[in-house]
Amino acid sequence: MARVGVLLLNLGGPDRLEDVGQFLFNLFSDPEIIRLPFPWMQKPLAWFIATRRAKTSQENYKQIGGGSPLREITEQQAQALESKLREAGEDATVYVGMRYWHPFTEEAIAQIRRDRVENLVILPLYPQFSISTSGSSFRLLEQLWNANPELQDIDYTVIPSWYKDPGYLQAMADLIAQKLAEFPNPDRAHIFFSAHGVPLSYVTEGGDPYQQEIEDCTNRIMQTLNRPNEHTLAYQSRVGPVEWLKPYTEDALKELGEKGIEEIVVVPISFVSEHIETLQEIDIEYREIAEEAGIGNFRRVPALNTHPIFINSLKSLVVNALNTPSRTFSEVVRPKKEKMKMYPQERWEWGMTSAAEVWNGRLAMLGFIALILELVSGHGPLHFVGLL
Ligand SMILES: C=CC1=C(C)c2cc3[nH]c(cc4nc(cc5[nH]c(cc1n2)c(C)c5CCC(=O)O)C(CCC(=O)O)=C4C)c(C)c3C=C
Ligand SMILES: [Fe+2]
Ligand SMILES: [Fe+2]
């Protein structure tokens, strides 16, 4: 029997308040999160933004108990999935690889090598694909694969996104229905889907399928739910000065309030675990905005975490990935090979003709001077555009 592994990919979050700065540095060092014309600018800018943002971010983590619950929940999901796979006769080990905090993806891959995994299913814990989330993790894995010839022996398969999975949709519909039942008149409550935003340019210039997948996902959940409630989709958690996907959650809430809607149920849909943006941003910040707008009955659907139907759907995804259509029982488990490069960043690189290089060089110098000025004075141009 081939040794089977499942690698769950996730973002990661700081376990303690003192980890917040380093976590933010890791996040902003990722060119899939902030894209700069020159790789050498990445780390200084990441350090700069992380340092400036750390205090606010720490305050938010303080409000949810001093750290992110993401590691604990993701490890529970991994355990639950491993048990479900074992029950189904699939003797697989489930690993967790976080992008920006422990246990890092690199650590998971090192363990996978030590365990001599032969067949690996790579499953991001993001139902929808985005360049900034699953895409970033796939890119990191691709780099690890290129740098380590021993990894070539592992037969891997990637599940790029899976929001269409019926089990996932059913679990979401279940949680929404349960929450609606808490309202005096369940059919009257407005269902408010709040997805994590991305900068608009990811979609318009980078070709990120994220927005389309989020919209499709929302429609499918509503179909599965099969109820008469009105619904809205909006995007939360914007950072920085550029335009992000619209409508923004805070604006959409105010608009609903103005229309006289008093009861809403918020459904976080980009993420399957509780994390800072559900526990702090939705439960505290958006609740306050909604209440000020006259929405008196504001409830939130919990994240899937280890919901049994959800874990079961992850199990089916893994089992399907391990089974090629032509496979018979007597055959060795052979995952379907898919190309990892399914994301569109390549089209999005900066032009590097020689004339452009000269100009890029000049602009980079200007940018660097601006950065130093900002560092010294605390009131440079980056401050004014609102990035910091
Ligand atoms: C599908 C989910 C997510 C997308 C898309 C996404 C894009 C994205 N995020 C930032 C900046 C930050 N994200 C931060 C935390 C964070 N982000 C996600 C998910 C998505 N991000 C999660 C689950 C978390 C929280 C982890 C936890 O600790 O619980 C943060 C740090 C927190 C803060 O300071 O607000 C930042 C910053 C960008 C710029 C981006 C798209 C380009
Ligand atoms: Fe984020
Ligand atoms: Fe946020």
TrEMBL record:
List of residues binding Fe(2+): 196, 277
Gene3D superfamilies with a match to the protein in the record: 3.40.50.1400
PROSITE patterns: FERROCHELATASE
Domain of life, source organism: Bacteria
Pathway the protein contributes to: Porphyrin-containing compound metabolism; protoheme biosynthesis; protoheme from protoporphyrin-IX: step 1/1
Record-listed E.C. numbers: 4.98.1.1
GO cellular component: cytoplasm
Any Gene Ontology biological process: heme biosynthetic process
Cellular localisation: Cytoplasm
Recorded catalytic activity of this chain's protein: heme b + 2 H(+) = protoporphyrin IX + Fe(2+); Fe-coproporphyrin III + 2 H(+) = coproporphyrin III + Fe(2+)
Key words, A-Z: Cytoplasm, Heme biosynthesis, Iron, Lyase, Metal-binding, Porphyrin biosynthesis
GO molecular function, one term: ferrochelatase activity
Enzyme class: lyase
Family listed: Belongs to the ferrochelatase family.
Function: Catalyzes the ferrous insertion into protoporphyrin IX.
Protein name: Ferrochelatase
